[in-house]
Design a protein that fits this description.
With 134 residues, the protein is an alpha+beta fold. 24% of the residues lie in helices and 34% in strands.
Length: 134
């Protein structure tokens, strides 16, 4: 069985978060989704558990970071092309996300970033496969 990753993120409004990611074309695994959590599916092995802040607190003794004021993580997603980077970043901004940083263009690698409605930082990156082979 391939190793999987589940990124756990606190959200203030679960329904708003689900709507945001739904507008970007992503789905949720209903088996792991209820009124306190939603399992956002990126691929067969990559998921984000969007947890209400109340539910998130069940998993930690630490305070929840205020993502408006500090960065707790930057989550990067790969894209198949430069165009797909732009499509996803533009869709995120149109769905209520906000810009995070200027685009990064190194020729062989291109990326854009955005903040979701809870101010978590996301990057969308494309890298030319020939640059990796070499």
């Amino acid at each position: 069985m391939p190793q999987m990753i589940f990124v756990n993120l606190p959200v203030k409004d679960l329904e708003a978060s689900k709507a945001f990611w739904g507008k970007l074309g992503y789905s949720f695994n209903e088996q792991f989704t209820d009124e306190h959590a939603a399992c956002l599916v990126f691929s067969d092995t990559i998921f984000a558990m969007l947890l209400t802040e109340e539910r998130f607190k069940d998993f930690t003794k630490k305070e929840i970071a205020d993502a408006r004021a500090s960065t707790e993580a930057i989550i990067a997603l790969s894209a198949d092309s430069r165009e797909k980077v732009d499509e996803l970043a533009d869709a995120a901004l149109a769905a209520g996300g906000s810009p995070a940083n200027d685009p990064q263009d190194y020729g062989y690698m291109y990326g854009r970033s955005f903040q979701d409605p809870d101010h978590h930082l996301w990057e969308v990156m494309w890298m030319d496969p020939s640059a990796v082979q070499g």
